[in-house]
Records
---
Amino acid sequence: MNIQDIKNIQSILSETLNVFIRLGSADIDKKSIKELYNKLDNIDYSVFSKMIEESPLSIVHDYNKAYFYLKSYLVDDPTELLPPDYDFRSRVERMGLNETAINDIIELWKLFEGVILSIKDHLYEVREFIEETGLNQCEQLPLHELTEQLITVSATQAKNIDSIIERMDKSNQMCSNSKETSQSQGYEEADNSNNTLQKNYGKGLLNLFHGNTNLIDELNGKTDKQIAYLINKWSKQLNNHNRPLIENPKNNLRSKFARELKNNGLIKCCVDVFSRKLS
């Protein structure tokens, strides 16, 4: 992966967000808005898909580097990036913009939101690949913890990245080459149930529901709104073993829930729309 490609994406996101943060206090011309719109619209997402074509060690390393540069923008609601009590209407009125200019800025924000959601989806696909191939298990560390280690090293400009990579490489040599997805520890009912595997639901969906096919069955015939309500409800409940009934969408799993439900034909709306319904 060319890290400069990730830096360029970060720069475009930063430049766009800065427009809205300074809105009302700085002049904005139509040309600059159009140029920024074109930059956003032409972002090349192949930089993410190319990660999984590299060596196992490089995939984890590149994912963490990309996460480091883009983590500030990986939010579920892009409005969270704006200052508290942000009032778009009062800001544009203060600038005396005409309706055309206002519409251009609104379209820029819509595109900005879409780009952020797309980046999240692409990074999630890389993360999902890492987890499915067991690369994070080889490291014997949750991926987010490994990420934080590399972020800390990068932020302080430390010199020990090579030692971390060397440790990753040694761990990788000790791993099996199995491509089967590892089940989360402690969910014996999901791991050992032959009935679960006989269902027609995808393995990714079964993992999210900890093998509780009865819950998935209950979603059949429900509206998207009802399905979102039930998932939000179940994610807060515990099973008889005092463990979470299902995964919690808040744990950076909204997009995965939406994607797996879509792949299994349980929801009608698109992945991006449904993921926003999960709180």
---
Amino acid sequence: MRSVFDAKPCRVRARVLCRKTDTGLLYSAEYLNSKLKCICKFETNSLENCISEAQSYLNENTENRLSGVFYSAYSLLEDSIISKNMKRIESALDNFDNLNVKSIELRVSALGDGSFSLSEEYILCELIKNEQDPNNIYDVVAEPCELNSAQYSISQLKKAITVINELSNDLYGETLCHLTEILIVKSNQINAASSFKSFGVVFMRELESEQDWTTYLEHLIHESAHHLVFSIWHSQRLIEKDKGILLCSPLRPDPRPISAVFHAAGVLSRIIFILGLAYDSGKYKNLKRTAKYNFPNTESLLNQFHDAFYAIESNAILSETGNKLLCSFKNLAQEYNRNSTLFIGREVSQNG
């Protein structure tokens, strides 16, 4: 098994880290359950049943994962308790009625196609709305796709997963460990998104006519890299001290905290890695990137990585693990960087 500060993919390590994260979720859920009983006298049978079922499921097999829907329902409950809004707490507790806590295999679907229950879709959409639109600017963040768009997007997503397996079985195994649900949506606010609060869940925007599986290839690697950092950070301190300032990030137009820039370094190193593998494979040597971002950055991927690397190095004191992991990201990016112009192939959308 690779160490936690080795940037190269490892399925076994991912299983171990996700197991720690799942176990942590259960401890936190048990604490919230006891807190609700003590201070508010809420009826929490559905939450208790979910905790019991989840614990039994984890005990069955060390490779079993909890669903991202369970993480999302827990996060909505936690947020409702912080708000001290009794109606929100009652509504959040209702989410645990007959909730599926098990992740048997990666679930891929489009919002509204019936693959997820209405309750599951509500939980996931409510969570992503809170995460992506905290100031409540938009009526909705995610909407159902048209049937043809949904079918095309799902087919291209499955193709992207197949290509990852062709290029790196380790990366494929790690990605399938990290991700439990992928929901394709119609949205003007997100291209692809994930959060530790919905650990395992990835939202992806439906494809446009000029896009294909290469868009989702990049998004899958991007979001799986976030999950790698999420899971390491859950059990290991990566940053000991920072200057408390917001920094420019190569992936976002708005200034970001040092933790977000650390994530960006991990994401960029993994994208360089998969594109390097694609180039070396011969079969995908002329792969063109079709992913679009709200923040167009025309610098090469390696230059973007270096921007993130030096921003972190100049503005934070990292732990031993954090420093080793960041250096490993750098080594990975430099080892697999090819002529990055081969992978541009498009103008980045200003509003995509």
---
Amino acid sequence: MTEKTSPYIFPFQSFRHLDRMTENATFLPSRTISPAELTPLIERFAPPLDLPPGGSLAERILGLFLLPGVLFGKPEFVTSRAEAWLAAIEDRLSTDRPVEFTILGFPFKMPVPLKTDRRAADFGEVVGLCRLNRIGEAIAAHHLPGARVHLLSEGPFHELNGLSRDWADAYFASLGHVVDLFGIGTHLALHDLNVVLDEEPDFRPAWTAATEDIRRRRDAGDPRTLDAIRDALPVRFHNIANPGVPDEELCRAYRGDVEAADLRASIAARAEEGVLAYRGFLEARDRIGLLDRLVPGGLSMTVSPRPGRLGVRPLPLPADKLPYHGVPVIGAKGQTLRIDYLWDLKRGGGRFEPLRIGADTDPAPFLYREVRG
């Protein structure tokens, strides 16, 4: 996973081949495999974890988040708050309660055909979810009451991306499907934030108020607000749905071609509003203490590392995108996993075998395997 991080959002990764309109990759006939055949790859990219040796159990649990395969961001983000983290962990241990964590993410497959042609979770999500489950597994091996990672799926962001709720609801259902199919949910609990918002009547007013507060801070030139918008805007710009727009026209808008200036301006305007609402959502979450309502005393994890959040690496290197922003590709020797934008995959040369699984809920490939020769 890329070492480029932001305290506000997982950073945007640029397309590599927007200069190429013609596809030049070769795709072999697709092949259907069983979920069991993917087990060795899951074990490779989401291997079992163990607590580091030495110190108290609380110190070993915190040390888990400093392991190279887990840590995302600077170690100081963890160690600078060590006293508070240890107190929170010890509170769970001393009262024989499960150690519980929260993390937000996995909203839906991005509605951008240049990124992916799927709407359901695929092998990238399987690996990412399994890596979260491994954290709970490692702790439960030493703490009888166990551990659980609560994943709060950011389905409400469909409102920021020009999507119907059905798009996010179907994706959330697909997350549950792959968790059950691959047996990676022992220490993982999935929560649909769309449903949570339905049940928390004070959240939406808080979201609206926070969004307007951020708009005022932006207009006043508040440095932190401007920094957060700067980091989030490229991500939001390349996530916006543009139904009916041909792929080639969207490519031109992304490149900044003069003939696509109107489309680019439209996307930019919607993205700017989306960033304000995105930041407003996160502020409203904290204002009403939403996470603590759902998981009292839960320790917060993130893929946007900063002090006060435990940064966790969502996928192993060399992957540099979150799984719902592209398609999963296994390297030719089976030793690497990366997430490629579909546009780039089709225009980067090479040979690929699309792999499907019989139990899939989506007709597009579940993953791609690079083939040499």
---
Amino acid sequence: MEVSVDAKLNIMVAHGPFNKELVLAADQAQEQIDPHLESAQRWGSVLVFKGSALATPDAITAIADIVARRCAQGIRPVAIALVMADDVEGASLMAPHYLQAYARSSIPGAVFAEVQAASDWVLAQL
């Protein structure tokens, strides 16, 4: 997973499909970005899927657990936007599962086909 910060946006580009081990590795990469997010105070996330959005059930559970842990540590996005273009395998099947993983920690989310629309929506939530 590629992670970066652009102003008040945490941008993540993920190449699927996903299993628990890949999710845990992505969490470690994200930890390198966290200090930049904490200083932004109110920020949001844009998660761009490439290739496939398919994930094992334990990967989705790991995402929900990671989000909950980060929120408990005070590292909490105001909102999450998922970017799933038409060519992303399993997008319509998996989007509700990803959104639920964030909703479990009361983080609203939405799905978009394009990065710009997703970024605009997240920034509007701030």
